[in-house]
Design brief:
Length: 299
């Protein structure tokens, strides 16, 4: 899905490929920065281009020597989330200058707030950003972007994003929607959260039937879950597993508490034996609490 900034970004990428330089795309979290830069890379650089994509914190000071060793083969440095690649051993002005001399483009993404802090801040300013002109990616889609999205109705993921994104943006839906659906799907297992899976299923179906989000209350969901008799029966059949798991957590916390109070009890015993009145009064209560483990979740 083409974004409005992709023409300008393509021009910047081709210029950096000819002359070297840093191209940064900034935007809000989950605005589509990574996909947009990757699309510009694949659309504007030859297929034979070697992509260097180091992990955050990688020492980049020897990268220019590696590039020289490749001879005439084209290379690009890909730095997704540039903030993790700054610092004395990362992308410094000296490293960037070496790459510019070799005509190696550097393509990077950065969140808006991080870019502002590292370029204009005083405490942690990154000089390599001085003079950069970032390509800004808007979080909210323009009318022309929506028109292009509607024209791609045959693409299932984009169609789902357009129909079911709710109050979220399309990039947000595309970034995390599929993972959330998969997490919800797997939650139906007896050892996971079948009740939660059923309630989310009921809420989604109500929304698809046109029920406003504000009208889907807890009481509505409690009634709606019974419309799925098989799933409802399965969820009702295993409440004891959830109770047992919660009781196990309570007992574990009790055991940890006993370990932490051993030293306190030893000092309080000594104080009571020495005749300290406050210790003598507090010690029986401490024994009562720590020697009697809870039998139920409520306790």
């Amino acid at each position: 899905m083409e974004r409005d900034c992709e023409h300008a970004l393509g021009d910047r990428v081709r210029e950096a490929a000819r002359e070297g330089g840093l191209v940064v795309v900034t935007g809000a979290p989950l605005s589509g920065k990574t996909r947009t830069v990757w699309a510009a890379l694949t659309a504007n650089l030859p297929e034979t281009t070697r992509v260097f994509a180091p992990s955050p914190g990688t020492d980049l000071r020897g990268l220019a020597a590696v590039v020289r060793g490749r001879g005439e083969a084209g290379c690009v440095l890909w730095l997704d989330d540039l903030g993790g690649h700054l610092g004395d051993h990362g992308l410094t002005p000296a490293v960037l200058a070496d790459l510019v001399r070799l005509r190696v483009p550097v393509l990077a993404t950065m969140e808006d707030e991080a870019y502002d802090a590292r370029r204009f801040g005083t405490a942690d300013r990154a000089r390599v950003l001085d003079g950069t002109r970032p390509v800004e990616l808007n979080r909210v889609w323009s009318d022309s972007e929506w028109a292009r999205l509607e024209a791609l109705d045959d693409e299932p993921r984009l169609r789902s994003a357009r129909l079911w994104r709710g109050a979220h943006t399309v990039p947000e839906y595309l970034a995390v929607g599929s993972d959330l659906v998969e997490e919800w799907r797997r939650a139906s297992r007896p050892t996971r959260h079948p009740r939660g899976h059923l309630l989310v299923r009921a809420a989604a179906d109500l929304y698809r039937c046109g029920v406003p989000h504000a009208a889907i209350s807890d009481s509505v969901l409690r009634g709606a879950q019974k419309l799925y008799p098989d799933a409802y029966a399965a969820a009702e059949a295993i409440p004891y597993l959830e109770q047992a798991a919660e009781a196990g957590i309570v007992r574990s916390q009790f055991a940890l508490g006993m370990l932490l109070t051993e030293r306190a009890k030893s000092w309080m015993n000594r104080a009571a034996e020495a005749g300290h009145p406050l210790a003598a009064r507090a010690l029986p209560r401490l024994h009562a609490v720590t020697y009697t483990p809870p039998d139920t979740v409520k306790e």
